[in-house]
């Protein structure tokens, strides 16, 4: 008689182990074999970080990412070294020296290139939208919009007199940033792309709205812990025409657009068929806002015109003019009065006009309307008047906000606060949700919206999440304490101002401190080498002023 043997014991054990592994994956656990018994290891908590600015990158740099499943969500795939953007816009630095990629900063980091559309704190979910639209088209700079053949140059008689001419015989530029609904303060979230404000060679078809491209592309992402570091937007004070006709300096794309436009203005002014009045209009550069960003850009632009452009366009440079327009009676008002006065005197010596105590009424194509001066023509207008809350922050009702600026409110531990249940009631924090960077502020403590503050908050929160903080409170987290390291601003021509709690400096010494500090503040050794390298190369051989 023939007998059929049943499965051997090792085979049965192997099959049982595989079945347990399959079940473990379904419930979110991984099993580790330890002899006959198997202990399940709990799945890592998912930590989602919204943003890739100073706060988020400082957090990622110091975070022990092996403790969490870390996911970073940002519409930018890179971190921008914002204090160096003015130099990148004027050719003193190459754009790659001001950027750090988000991907690759840690082998365990996941990155989603997306916008956060909605925050659901109750269900711990985010609604995300891919950052890039689904369709692109090539834009040939030598083709008219919608044409199939070479551009037809319009005659001088047909050209509107007040508009700025460009390389295609028209009055617009390809390189001004499109007014994306998430980039600039606006009363409406809907923005139709203006074909004259496209960026680079990959752009949407004119007249196609961002919302129409985004419909049906959202997806949800759950989280256990959440860090909101979405930053802030350019503040326009709802001034008419700013979105359509002004340039901004908040991102590397802005810097590239501005550099392209500066060179375009000089190229067009060099044409022999223009009058001196038209040339002056093209070469009139206006900066609205006398803070650090606007002042540093004005200084770097002056150096560019006085050195490299003077060599290339000797007949046009005397017609160029740089103006700073501000509603206050001074510039760099966050610095000590003596340093602010030093900056004003330096700019006057350099020929930079300071139009102070002015009120901007509107911006038209090639014209700034300001009181009491009236209409001022320009070839480039850079708008730098501060920041405001983003649409995501404004639309989130489950988080307490500052009544004046609508930024999120946090407690001293950087934990997001819920709205008070009733007037006068104490606000409670949301467990496992923090706010850092420009999008939030500590309740009762108005800290400046600077890279310094955002970086310190990110580093502090990393220590909290790593479990490194001393248990000196009942929650086991120490209170965030800002350490004021001072402020710096470059004034061009080897001059700067430094305002620190311990000392103040101006001139060449301050310039050396400024350059040393921002070289060291670069996040990677690659850029710590590239930044002084490009400074040296451009000092010896001049700036690269090609347009591409």
Protein topology:
Blueprint: H1 9-26, E1 30-34, E2 37-41, E3 45-50, H2 54-62, E4 68-74, E5 78-80, H3 85-89, E6 99-101, E7 110-120, E8 125-130, E9 137-138, E10 202-203, H4 210-214, E11 219-222, E12 225-228, E13 233-234, H5 242-245, E14 247-248, H6 252-269, H7 276-282, E15 284-288, H8 292-312, E16 321-325, H9 337-350, E17 353-355, E18 359-364, E19 367-371, E20 374-377, E21 380-383, E22 387-388, H10 391-395, E23 408-410, E24 415-417, E25 429-435, E26 440-442, H11 451-466, E27 487-492, E28 495-499, E29 504-507, H12 508-520, H13 525-541
Parallel strand pairs: 3-4, 3-12, 4-7, 12-25, 14-21, 15-16, 15-21, 16-17, 23-26
Antiparallel strand pairs: 1-2, 5-6, 7-8, 8-11, 9-10, 13-22, 18-19, 19-20, 24-25, 27-28, 28-29
Q: What do we call the CATH homologous superfamily of the domain at 46-131 and 389-466?
A: FAD/NAD(P)-binding domain
Low-confidence stretches: 1-7, 9-13, 21-37, 135-182, 187-209
In the sheet with the most strands, the strands line up as: 11-8-7-4-3-12-25-24
Strand-residue fraction? 15-25%
Number of helices: 13
Helix/strand/pairing category: alpha/beta
CATH topology of the domain at 46-131 and 389-466: FAD/NAD(P)-binding domain
Whole-angstrom Rg: 27 Å
CATH class of the domain at 46-131 and 389-466: Alpha Beta
Helix content: 25-40%
> What best-fitting shape do the alpha-carbon axes yield?
globular
Largest sheet: number of strands, sense, barrel closure: 8 strands, mixed
Organism: Acaromyces ingoldii
Protein name: FAD/NAD(P)-binding domain-containing protein
Pfam families: NDH2_C (PF22366), Pyr_redox_2 (PF07992)
Keywords: FAD, Flavoprotein, NAD, Oxidoreductase
